DNA sequence: GCTATTATTTATCATAGGATAATTTTGCTG
DNA sequence: CAGCAAAATTATCCTATGATAAATAATAGC
Protein backbone atom coordinates (compact mmCIF):
# COMPACT_ATOMS: atom_id res chain seq x y z
CA UNK A 1 0.00 0.00 0.00
CA UNK A 2 1.46 3.37 -0.94
CA UNK A 3 1.79 6.24 1.49
CA UNK A 4 -0.42 8.34 -0.77
CA UNK A 5 -3.22 5.82 -0.54
CA UNK A 6 -2.86 5.67 3.23
CA UNK A 7 -2.91 9.44 3.66
CA UNK A 8 -5.84 9.85 1.27
CA UNK A 9 -7.99 7.23 2.91
CA UNK A 10 -7.83 9.16 6.18
CA UNK A 11 -8.71 12.57 4.71
CA UNK A 12 -8.09 14.39 1.48
CA UNK A 13 -5.66 17.26 1.73
CA UNK A 14 -4.10 19.54 -0.92
CA UNK A 15 -0.96 18.33 -2.68
CA UNK A 16 1.19 20.93 -0.95
CA UNK A 17 0.11 19.71 2.47
CA UNK A 18 0.59 16.13 1.43
CA UNK A 19 4.09 16.90 0.29
CA UNK A 20 4.86 18.55 3.63
CA UNK A 21 3.55 15.50 5.43
CA UNK A 22 5.47 13.08 3.25
CA UNK A 23 8.72 14.95 3.80
CA UNK A 24 8.53 13.78 7.37
CA UNK A 25 7.78 10.17 6.58
CA UNK A 26 10.44 7.54 5.95
CA UNK A 27 10.26 3.86 5.13
CA UNK A 28 11.52 1.23 7.53
CA UNK A 29 11.41 -2.56 7.62
CA UNK A 30 11.55 -4.96 10.53
CA UNK A 31 11.42 -8.74 10.78
CA UNK A 32 8.69 -10.91 12.20
CA UNK A 33 8.59 -10.91 16.01
CA UNK A 34 10.15 -7.47 16.27
CA UNK A 35 8.63 -5.40 19.05
CA UNK A 36 7.88 -2.07 17.42
CA UNK A 37 6.28 -0.20 20.32
CA UNK A 38 6.84 -0.89 23.98
CA UNK A 39 4.49 -0.29 26.86
CA UNK A 40 6.11 1.83 29.54
CA UNK A 41 7.94 3.84 26.95
CA UNK A 42 6.92 7.17 25.49
CA UNK A 43 6.94 6.42 21.79
CA UNK A 44 8.33 9.11 19.50
CA UNK A 45 6.93 7.72 16.24
CA UNK A 46 3.74 6.58 14.68
CA UNK A 47 3.67 4.11 11.81
CA UNK A 48 1.51 3.17 8.86
CA UNK A 49 1.58 -0.39 7.57
CA UNK A 50 2.78 -0.71 3.99
CA UNK A 51 3.01 -4.47 4.15
CA UNK A 52 2.51 -7.00 6.93
CA UNK A 53 0.37 -7.57 9.98
CA UNK A 54 0.88 -6.67 13.62
CA UNK A 55 -0.82 -7.06 16.97
CA UNK A 56 -1.08 -4.73 19.94
CA UNK A 57 -1.16 -6.34 23.34
CA UNK A 58 -1.24 -5.21 26.92
CA UNK A 59 1.47 -7.18 28.69
CA UNK A 60 0.29 -8.78 31.91
CA UNK A 61 1.94 -11.19 34.24
CA UNK A 62 1.12 -14.64 32.90
CA UNK A 63 -1.24 -13.51 30.18
CA UNK A 64 -0.89 -10.85 27.53
CA UNK A 65 -4.12 -9.38 26.25
CA UNK A 66 -4.17 -8.91 22.49
CA UNK A 67 -6.60 -6.10 21.80
CA UNK A 68 -5.91 -5.02 18.22
CA UNK A 69 -4.66 -6.34 14.89
CA UNK A 70 -3.34 -4.02 12.21
CA UNK A 71 -3.08 -4.87 8.54
CA UNK A 72 -1.97 -3.04 5.42
CA UNK A 73 -3.05 0.60 5.42
CA UNK A 74 -3.65 0.85 9.14
CA UNK A 75 -2.07 3.20 11.65
CA UNK A 76 0.08 1.97 14.52
CA UNK A 77 0.37 4.26 17.48
CA UNK A 78 0.53 4.23 21.23
CA UNK A 79 -2.48 6.41 21.94
CA UNK A 80 -1.19 7.45 25.36
CA UNK A 81 2.18 8.48 23.93
CA UNK A 82 0.63 10.22 20.96
CA UNK A 83 -2.02 12.15 22.85
CA UNK A 84 -0.57 12.70 26.30
CA UNK A 85 3.13 11.99 25.92
CA UNK A 86 2.74 9.39 28.62
CA UNK A 87 3.69 5.73 28.76
CA UNK A 88 1.16 3.54 27.01
CA UNK A 89 -0.53 0.25 27.79
CA UNK A 90 0.58 -1.60 24.72
CA UNK A 91 3.35 -3.44 23.03
CA UNK A 92 3.09 -3.76 19.28
CA UNK A 93 4.64 -6.89 17.83
CA UNK A 94 5.13 -7.71 14.16
CA UNK A 95 3.46 -10.98 13.23
CA UNK A 96 5.12 -11.00 9.80
CA UNK A 97 8.14 -9.28 8.29
CA UNK A 98 6.81 -5.75 7.81
CA UNK A 99 7.41 -2.67 5.74
CA UNK A 100 6.30 0.46 7.52
CA UNK A 101 6.08 4.20 7.02
CA UNK A 102 7.48 6.04 10.01
CA UNK A 103 6.47 9.52 11.13
CA UNK A 104 7.91 11.38 14.12
CA UNK A 105 5.18 12.66 16.43
CA UNK A 106 7.19 15.80 17.20
CA UNK A 107 7.25 16.67 13.49
CA UNK A 108 3.61 15.87 13.13
CA UNK A 109 2.73 18.17 16.01
CA UNK A 110 4.65 20.97 14.33
CA UNK A 111 2.63 20.41 11.18
CA UNK A 112 -0.61 20.42 13.16
CA UNK A 113 0.26 23.91 14.33
CA UNK A 114 1.27 25.19 10.92
CA UNK A 115 -1.10 23.67 8.39
CA UNK A 116 -4.85 23.65 8.90
CA UNK A 117 -5.30 20.87 6.35
CA UNK A 118 -2.94 18.63 8.24
CA UNK A 119 -4.64 19.58 11.51
CA UNK A 120 -7.94 18.41 10.06
CA UNK A 121 -6.27 15.30 8.68
CA UNK A 122 -5.06 14.53 12.21
CA UNK A 123 -8.56 15.12 13.49
CA UNK A 124 -9.97 12.63 11.02
CA UNK A 125 -7.28 10.12 11.93
CA UNK A 126 -8.42 10.20 15.57
CA UNK A 127 -12.09 10.25 14.66
CA UNK A 128 -11.80 7.21 12.43
CA UNK A 129 -9.91 5.25 15.06
CA UNK A 130 -12.62 6.23 17.51
CA UNK A 131 -15.34 4.84 15.27
CA UNK A 132 -13.50 1.55 14.92
CA UNK A 133 -13.04 1.06 18.62
CA UNK A 134 -16.59 2.16 19.37
CA UNK A 135 -18.12 -0.42 17.07
CA UNK A 136 -15.94 -2.99 18.77
CA UNK A 137 -17.10 -2.02 22.27
CA UNK A 138 -20.70 -2.29 21.21
CA UNK A 139 -20.31 -5.64 19.48
CA UNK A 140 -18.37 -7.04 22.43
CA UNK A 141 -21.24 -6.22 24.74
CA UNK A 142 -23.83 -7.42 22.29
CA UNK A 143 -22.47 -10.71 21.00
CA UNK A 144 -21.48 -14.09 22.43
CA UNK A 145 -17.94 -15.38 21.95
CA UNK A 146 -19.07 -17.48 19.01
CA UNK A 147 -20.82 -14.54 17.39
CA UNK A 148 -17.76 -12.35 17.89
CA UNK A 149 -15.64 -15.00 16.22
CA UNK A 150 -18.03 -15.26 13.28
CA UNK A 151 -18.13 -11.48 12.95
CA UNK A 152 -14.34 -11.23 13.01
CA UNK A 153 -14.04 -13.92 10.38
CA UNK A 154 -16.47 -12.24 8.05
CA UNK A 155 -14.97 -8.78 8.55
CA UNK A 156 -11.32 -9.85 8.38
CA UNK A 157 -11.18 -13.31 6.82
CA UNK A 158 -7.46 -13.01 6.19
CA UNK A 159 -6.73 -12.79 9.90
CA UNK A 160 -7.25 -16.47 10.45
CA UNK A 161 -4.67 -17.25 7.77
CA UNK A 162 -2.10 -14.85 9.10
CA UNK A 163 -2.47 -14.82 12.87
CA UNK A 164 -1.95 -17.63 15.42
CA UNK A 165 -5.24 -18.67 16.98
CA UNK A 166 -4.03 -17.97 20.48
CA UNK A 167 -3.89 -14.27 19.65
CA UNK A 168 -7.32 -14.35 18.07
CA UNK A 169 -8.65 -16.05 21.20
CA UNK A 170 -7.13 -13.34 23.37
CA UNK A 171 -8.60 -10.65 21.11
CA UNK A 172 -12.02 -12.27 21.45
CA UNK A 173 -11.63 -12.37 25.23
CA UNK A 174 -11.61 -16.16 25.51
CA UNK A 175 -9.01 -18.88 26.02
CA UNK A 176 -7.43 -20.76 23.10
CA UNK A 177 -9.14 -23.88 24.43
CA UNK A 178 -12.52 -22.22 24.25
CA UNK A 179 -11.86 -20.89 20.76
CA UNK A 180 -10.97 -24.39 19.67
CA UNK A 181 -14.34 -25.61 20.97
CA UNK A 182 -16.16 -22.83 19.14
CA UNK A 183 -14.42 -23.61 15.87
CA UNK A 184 -15.20 -27.30 16.20
CA UNK A 185 -18.91 -26.71 16.66
CA UNK A 186 -19.21 -25.03 13.29
CA UNK B 1 -19.73 23.83 34.69
CA UNK B 2 -19.15 26.81 32.43
CA UNK B 3 -18.66 26.53 28.68
CA UNK B 4 -15.23 28.15 29.07
CA UNK B 5 -14.11 25.44 31.47
CA UNK B 6 -15.40 22.77 29.14
CA UNK B 7 -13.66 24.20 26.08
CA UNK B 8 -10.41 24.76 27.97
CA UNK B 9 -10.25 21.27 29.41
CA UNK B 10 -10.24 19.86 25.90
CA UNK B 11 -7.54 22.12 24.49
CA UNK B 12 -6.42 25.68 25.03
CA UNK B 13 -7.16 28.00 22.16
CA UNK B 14 -6.77 31.78 21.75
CA UNK B 15 -9.57 34.02 23.00
CA UNK B 16 -10.57 35.01 19.46
CA UNK B 17 -11.05 31.36 18.49
CA UNK B 18 -12.92 30.66 21.67
CA UNK B 19 -15.23 33.56 20.98
CA UNK B 20 -15.89 32.22 17.49
CA UNK B 21 -16.68 28.82 18.93
CA UNK B 22 -18.93 30.21 21.64
CA UNK B 23 -20.90 32.25 19.13
CA UNK B 24 -22.16 28.95 17.80
CA UNK B 25 -23.06 27.48 21.16
CA UNK B 26 -26.40 27.96 22.86
CA UNK B 27 -27.81 26.76 26.15
CA UNK B 28 -30.72 24.34 26.31
CA UNK B 29 -32.45 22.43 29.09
CA UNK B 30 -34.43 19.20 29.00
CA UNK B 31 -36.18 17.17 31.68
CA UNK B 32 -35.24 13.78 33.06
CA UNK B 33 -36.06 10.91 30.69
CA UNK B 34 -35.81 13.10 27.60
CA UNK B 35 -34.20 11.29 24.67
CA UNK B 36 -31.59 13.72 23.41
CA UNK B 37 -30.04 11.69 20.59
CA UNK B 38 -31.72 8.93 18.66
CA UNK B 39 -30.15 5.94 16.98
CA UNK B 40 -31.14 5.74 13.33
CA UNK B 41 -31.10 9.48 13.05
CA UNK B 42 -28.30 11.64 11.72
CA UNK B 43 -27.80 14.05 14.58
CA UNK B 44 -27.13 17.67 13.70
CA UNK B 45 -25.82 18.74 17.10
CA UNK B 46 -23.30 17.85 19.71
CA UNK B 47 -23.74 18.78 23.36
CA UNK B 48 -21.67 19.48 26.42
CA UNK B 49 -23.10 18.78 29.85
CA UNK B 50 -23.40 21.86 32.04
CA UNK B 51 -25.44 20.07 34.68
CA UNK B 52 -26.88 16.59 34.95
CA UNK B 53 -26.09 13.03 33.98
CA UNK B 54 -26.95 11.00 30.89
CA UNK B 55 -26.53 7.53 29.48
CA UNK B 56 -25.89 6.31 25.95
CA UNK B 57 -27.43 3.00 25.02
CA UNK B 58 -27.67 0.85 21.95
CA UNK B 59 -31.34 -0.11 21.64
CA UNK B 60 -31.86 -3.81 21.07
CA UNK B 61 -34.96 -5.91 20.98
CA UNK B 62 -35.59 -6.98 24.56
CA UNK B 63 -32.40 -5.53 26.01
CA UNK B 64 -30.81 -2.13 25.65
CA UNK B 65 -27.05 -2.02 26.14
CA UNK B 66 -25.88 0.97 28.18
CA UNK B 67 -22.33 1.66 27.13
CA UNK B 68 -21.54 5.14 28.41
CA UNK B 69 -22.43 7.57 31.17
CA UNK B 70 -21.79 11.28 30.81
CA UNK B 71 -21.52 13.73 33.69
CA UNK B 72 -20.83 17.44 34.02
CA UNK B 73 -18.19 18.62 31.57
CA UNK B 74 -18.46 15.71 29.19
CA UNK B 75 -19.27 15.73 25.51
CA UNK B 76 -22.37 14.06 24.11
CA UNK B 77 -22.24 13.08 20.48
CA UNK B 78 -23.28 10.36 18.11
CA UNK B 79 -19.86 9.43 16.77
CA UNK B 80 -21.28 8.02 13.55
CA UNK B 81 -23.30 11.16 12.87
CA UNK B 82 -20.45 13.46 13.82
CA UNK B 83 -17.73 11.70 11.82
CA UNK B 84 -19.52 10.11 8.90
CA UNK B 85 -22.91 11.80 8.78
CA UNK B 86 -24.48 8.39 9.12
CA UNK B 87 -27.05 7.01 11.52
CA UNK B 88 -25.54 6.06 14.85
CA UNK B 89 -25.87 3.14 17.21
CA UNK B 90 -26.95 5.06 20.23
CA UNK B 91 -29.78 6.76 21.99
CA UNK B 92 -28.80 9.25 24.64
CA UNK B 93 -31.25 9.58 27.51
CA UNK B 94 -31.18 12.13 30.30
CA UNK B 95 -31.10 10.49 33.72
CA UNK B 96 -31.71 13.82 35.48
CA UNK B 97 -33.06 17.19 34.44
CA UNK B 98 -30.14 18.57 32.42
CA UNK B 99 -28.68 21.85 31.30
CA UNK B 100 -26.69 21.49 28.12
CA UNK B 101 -24.58 23.51 25.72
CA UNK B 102 -25.62 22.84 22.14
CA UNK B 103 -23.36 23.18 19.08
CA UNK B 104 -24.41 22.53 15.50
CA UNK B 105 -22.05 20.13 13.75
CA UNK B 106 -22.43 22.00 10.46
CA UNK B 107 -21.19 25.19 12.12
CA UNK B 108 -18.39 23.33 13.83
CA UNK B 109 -17.25 21.87 10.51
CA UNK B 110 -17.13 25.36 9.03
CA UNK B 111 -14.93 26.46 11.90
CA UNK B 112 -12.67 23.45 11.41
CA UNK B 113 -12.01 24.64 7.88
CA UNK B 114 -11.44 28.26 8.85
CA UNK B 115 -9.56 28.27 12.13
CA UNK B 116 -6.52 26.10 12.72
CA UNK B 117 -6.84 26.46 16.48
CA UNK B 118 -10.36 25.12 16.40
CA UNK B 119 -9.27 22.34 14.05
CA UNK B 120 -6.69 21.29 16.62
CA UNK B 121 -9.24 21.64 19.39
CA UNK B 122 -11.48 19.22 17.47
CA UNK B 123 -8.54 16.90 17.05
CA UNK B 124 -7.95 16.89 20.79
CA UNK B 125 -11.64 16.30 21.42
CA UNK B 126 -11.51 13.11 19.37
CA UNK B 127 -8.16 12.04 20.79
CA UNK B 128 -9.32 12.40 24.37
CA UNK B 129 -12.48 10.43 23.72
CA UNK B 130 -10.32 7.78 22.12
CA UNK B 131 -8.14 7.48 25.20
CA UNK B 132 -11.18 7.08 27.42
CA UNK B 133 -12.69 4.33 25.35
CA UNK B 134 -9.34 2.59 24.91
CA UNK B 135 -8.74 2.35 28.63
CA UNK B 136 -12.19 0.91 28.96
CA UNK B 137 -11.62 -1.78 26.31
CA UNK B 138 -8.45 -2.85 28.04
CA UNK B 139 -9.97 -2.98 31.51
CA UNK B 140 -12.98 -4.88 30.24
CA UNK B 141 -10.71 -7.59 28.86
CA UNK B 142 -8.53 -7.60 31.94
CA UNK B 143 -10.96 -7.54 34.83
CA UNK B 144 -13.78 -9.71 36.18
CA UNK B 145 -17.26 -8.27 36.59
CA UNK B 146 -16.61 -7.63 40.27
CA UNK B 147 -13.33 -5.90 39.55
CA UNK B 148 -14.97 -3.75 36.88
CA UNK B 149 -17.65 -2.77 39.38
CA UNK B 150 -15.06 -1.87 41.99
CA UNK B 151 -13.08 0.12 39.45
CA UNK B 152 -16.16 2.01 38.30
CA UNK B 153 -17.09 2.82 41.87
CA UNK B 154 -13.66 4.16 42.69
CA UNK B 155 -13.38 6.17 39.46
CA UNK B 156 -16.93 7.53 39.48
CA UNK B 157 -18.34 7.10 42.98
CA UNK B 158 -21.17 9.51 42.27
CA UNK B 159 -22.58 7.22 39.59
CA UNK B 160 -24.06 4.82 42.10
CA UNK B 161 -25.95 7.66 43.73
CA UNK B 162 -27.26 9.05 40.49
CA UNK B 163 -27.85 6.09 38.20
CA UNK B 164 -30.26 3.13 38.55
CA UNK B 165 -28.33 -0.08 39.12
CA UNK B 166 -29.89 -1.75 36.12
CA UNK B 167 -28.04 0.66 33.86
CA UNK B 168 -24.79 0.16 35.73
CA UNK B 169 -25.22 -3.60 35.34
CA UNK B 170 -25.73 -3.20 31.62
CA UNK B 171 -22.67 -0.97 31.41
CA UNK B 172 -20.63 -3.62 33.19
CA UNK B 173 -21.92 -6.26 30.80
CA UNK B 174 -23.83 -8.26 33.40
CA UNK B 175 -27.44 -8.67 34.49
CA UNK B 176 -28.98 -6.68 37.33
CA UNK B 177 -29.35 -9.96 39.19
CA UNK B 178 -25.67 -10.64 38.91
CA UNK B 179 -24.75 -7.10 39.98
CA UNK B 180 -26.91 -7.57 43.03
CA UNK B 181 -24.95 -10.71 43.90
CA UNK B 182 -21.64 -8.90 43.45
CA UNK B 183 -22.71 -6.03 45.68
CA UNK B 184 -23.87 -8.40 48.38
CA UNK B 185 -20.55 -10.22 48.54
CA UNK B 186 -18.65 -7.09 49.50
C1' DG C 1 14.72 -33.73 6.76
C1' DC C 2 15.04 -34.34 12.09
C1' DT C 3 14.22 -32.82 16.46
C1' DA C 4 12.70 -29.62 19.81
C1' DT C 5 9.60 -26.30 20.69
C1' DT C 6 5.25 -24.19 20.38
C1' DA C 7 0.43 -24.19 18.97
C1' DT C 8 -3.81 -26.53 18.78
C1' DT C 9 -7.10 -29.84 20.02
C1' DT C 10 -9.50 -32.90 23.09
C1' DA C 11 -11.18 -34.38 27.52
C1' DT C 12 -12.60 -33.66 32.28
C1' DC C 13 -14.05 -31.04 35.92
C1' DA C 14 -15.06 -26.38 38.19
C1' DT C 15 -17.25 -21.84 38.39
C1' DA C 16 -18.96 -17.18 37.18
C1' DG C 17 -22.64 -15.37 35.56
C1' DG C 18 -27.34 -16.08 33.00
C1' DA C 19 -32.48 -17.22 33.14
C1' DT C 20 -36.43 -17.37 35.56
C1' DA C 21 -39.49 -16.48 39.18
C1' DA C 22 -40.87 -14.94 43.63
C1' DT C 23 -40.32 -11.36 47.11
C1' DT C 24 -39.11 -7.05 48.98
C1' DT C 25 -38.00 -2.28 48.49
C1' DT C 26 -38.24 2.07 46.39
C1' DG C 27 -40.32 5.72 44.16
C1' DC C 28 -43.98 7.98 41.63
C1' DT C 29 -48.40 10.05 41.06
C1' DG C 30 -52.83 11.12 42.14
C1' DC D 1 -49.95 9.18 52.17
C1' DA D 2 -52.03 5.40 49.65
C1' DG D 3 -51.57 2.49 46.05
C1' DC D 4 -49.33 1.08 41.99
C1' DA D 5 -45.43 0.34 39.12
C1' DA D 6 -40.72 -0.16 38.68
C1' DA D 7 -36.37 -1.53 40.69
C1' DA D 8 -33.64 -4.42 43.40
C1' DT D 9 -32.86 -8.54 45.87
C1' DT D 10 -32.91 -13.40 46.77
C1' DA D 11 -33.23 -18.23 45.54
C1' DT D 12 -32.90 -22.05 42.35
C1' DC D 13 -31.25 -24.15 38.58
C1' DC D 14 -28.52 -24.05 34.15
C1' DT D 15 -24.92 -23.07 30.67
C1' DA D 16 -20.89 -21.04 28.59
C1' DT D 17 -16.43 -20.59 29.41
C1' DG D 18 -12.28 -21.26 32.44
C1' DA D 19 -8.51 -24.32 34.38
C1' DT D 20 -5.83 -28.08 33.96
C1' DA D 21 -3.71 -31.86 31.76
C1' DA D 22 -2.64 -34.88 28.11
C1' DA D 23 -2.40 -35.89 23.18
C1' DT D 24 -1.57 -34.38 18.60
C1' DA D 25 -0.15 -31.19 15.03
C1' DA D 26 2.50 -27.55 13.20
C1' DT D 27 6.72 -24.77 13.00
C1' DA D 28 11.36 -23.41 13.25
C1' DG D 29 16.22 -24.06 13.82
C1' DC D 30 19.97 -27.03 13.03
Describe it.
Two copies of one chain form a homodimer. By secondary structure, chain A is α+β, with helices and mostly antiparallel strands. Chain A has one domain: Jelly Rolls. Chain A has helices spanning 3-10, 15-22, 79-84, 105-114, 116-142, 145-155, 159-162, 165-172, 176-185; strands at 25-30, 35-37, 45-51, 54-58, 65-70, 75-76, 91-94, 98-104. In chain A, the strands form two sheets. Chain A has a four-stranded antiparallel β-sheet. Chain A has a four-stranded antiparallel β-sheet with strand order 2-7-4-5. In chain A, helix 4 packs across helix 5 (116-142). The relative contact order of chain A is 0.17. Chain B binds a DNA duplex (30 and 30 nucleotides) through residues 144-146, 164-166, 174-184.
Fold topology:
2 copies of one chain form a homodimer.
Chain A (H helix, E strand, L loop, with lengths): L2 H8 L4 H8 L2 E6 L4 E3 L7 E7 L2 E5 L6 E6 L4 E2 L2 H6 L6 E4 L3 E7 H10 L1 H27 L2 H11 L3 H4 L2 H8 L3 H10 L1
Antiparallel strand pairs in A: 1-8, 2-7, 3-6, 3-8, 4-5, 4-7
Helix pairs in contact in A: 4-5, 8-9
Chain B binds a DNA duplex (30 and 30 nucleotides) through helix 9.
